[in-house]
Structure formats: structure tokens, C-alpha cells
Amino acid sequence: MPLLRPILAPFLGLTIALFTAATMAQAQVHAYSKTNQRFVVMGQGEPTVVVLYGLASSMQEWMPVVRRIAAQSQVFIYERRGYGRAPIIGTSRGSAVIVEELDQMLDDLDIEGPYVLVGHSMGAIYAQTFARMFPEDTAGLLLVDPSVEQLDRFMMGADDETTMPPMTLLMNRGAKAEYRGRRLAVTERDAAEPLPPHIPVTVLSAGRNMTGGYSDLQEQVTALQAMMTVDSDGGRHLVVERAGHNLHRVAPHAVELEVARLIALDRASEAPAPEAPTPDPDKE
Q: How wide is the angle at C-alpha 230 spanned by C-alphas 223 and 239, nearest 5°?
């Protein structure tokens, strides 16, 4: 079977691409009039689940999971500037500008909170920044194999943050700008007020994210990801043992179940308290 993998890989990739394209075609895609950013809103109910995909990813890649979540509550997923036709200003983008653009977009579209924020990889940094900047609108955080700053500095070097490695050559304008701004994104996240401890935070770690020459770092990366939950009273860290970095593709059920739990926690907190029974004077 291992010998067949290189042969089957292109066909499997084509199958996944066709499936996600078909799924996207079935969803009603809208355009945000101010910037021409594409977005999808599916499902009904509160809280609204907001999905922030990772660096160089796309809405299409997340649509199968979005459909699953939409059976539980309303879901919003959108295309960040530079990933499509929407223009960007500058060549480097941190988390603050991305969060401000998202907040403005949600406001203009009348998509009200509270929000359960789902962030994958670099999108997890943006989700954390949003939650810190707008804690009153945040019902919960799900960080899917979130980016780890220490690993980035180890693998890419700590000095020149603007050097673009070969892997970025095929990236779109938005992804390139986010790559250049990845250290700024962390700085801006950490400069915001700490997340209130009552907001539940879940981290899903990929058990097989670090492969090849970096496999010996898996334990350290997982431990650093787990630290992202320690300041939350409802913090929860789960490792999906056999999954790689793209958890939403290889283990969508793990994402779906954890979103369902965060939705249930928010709905339980919003439920009115039962009324105390009225005393019966005849029994006194």
C-alpha cells in the first residue's frame, strides 16, 4: 500500500478538490458590497459560529465542516482581503487590521453576537485577537491546531521576518501579506487585554502535525498549544492522535463535536433560571 500512495495522491487530491468545489457550489455565496469579499451564512440559531481559516487556505476547504456545523447553529465564513477580489493596503498584515475588518463586516451584515470563534492554524491567532478585543461578543473559542510562535521562529529564523521562502511563491496577495505580518499578528494579540477566564477555550492538537525532520518536536508543540487553554476556567485540550495539521479535513467530526459543545455551553448560560416555587400558605 505505501508504494501506491505516490500514484494515488494526485487522484485523491483531485477528488477532494472536486468534492469541495461541489460543496461550495451548493452553498449560497454572497459578496460584501464594500470590498467584494465573498462570504457564506448557513444555518439558524445562536450563537453564530465564525470560521477563520488558516494561512493560504480558503472558504472552499472548510465548506464540508461548515455544512455539518450549520445543522446546529448559524455559521459565518468569509474570504479575507487579498484572497479574492478584495483589495489590500500594504504588503504586511497583522491581526489587529484583520479583526477590525471582520468586526466591521459582521456589523454591516447585521450578524450579531455572541460568536463561537473557530480558528485554524494562523486563523487561531486572529480568533484569539478578536476574542481579546471583543470579549463581550465572544461565547467561546475553538483553536484547531493553532500556530505556535516559538515553532515559527525556530523553523523560519528569528531575525528577518520579511524573507519569503519558496513555499510562498504561489500564495495569493492576502496570504503573502499575512505571512509577512505573522510576527506582528502575535504581538498585536498579546498587546490586547487578556481573555476573561469565563470564556471557554478548546484547543484541538494534531497528533501527527510535525513530520519528517521535525517529528521530534511534536511533544513540545502540543505542550505549547495546551498552554493556550490554561487561563480559561473552561479550558480544554484534546489531541487527535492520527490527524495531521488539516484537522478539519481528516477529522471533521472532532471539530464538529467541539463546536457543538461550545454552542451548548453558551445556550445553557443564556437559559433563564427556573422560578422558585411559590409557598403554599395552607401548608404553613
A: 40
| Domain range annotation of the chain | 26-269
For the segment 86-141, what is each residue's pLDDT rounded down to a tens digit? 999 889 999 999 999 999 999 999 999 999 999 999 999 999 999 999 999 999 99
* Amino acid of residue 9: A
Q: b/e per residue, 71-102, with b = 16+ CB within 10 A?
A: ebbbbbbbbbbbbbebebeeebbbbbbbbebb
Q: C-alpha grid cell for residue 63?
A: 465548506
Give yes or no for a cis peptide into 252 (omega within 30° of 0). Answer: no
Say how far apart CA 244 and CA 206 lie, in whole Å. Answer: 5
Residues (pLDDT < 70) of the chain are 1-26, 153-162, 211-214, 273-284
236-240 sheet: strands from edge to edge: 30-32, 37-42, 75-78, 48-52, 115-120, 138-144, 201-206, 236-240
Q: Which helix (H) or strand (E) holds 76?
A: strand 75-78
Contact 118, 51 (CB under 8 A): yes
d(CA 150, CA 116): 26
* C-alpha cell, 55: 494561512
* Best CA proximity match to 122, nearest among 61, 55, 189: 55
- CATH, range 26-269: 3.40.50.1820
Q: How far apart (Å, rounded) are the C-alpha atoms in residues 272 and 266?
A: 12
C-alpha 201/C-alpha 118 separation (Å) is: 10
Q: Would you say 139 and 266 are in contact if contact means Cβ atoms under 8 Å apart?
A: yes
Per-residue pLDDT tens for 21-30? 444 546 899 9
Q: Which residues pair with 39 in a beta bridge?
A: 30, 78
The whole-angstrom separation of Cα 89 and Cα 111 is 25
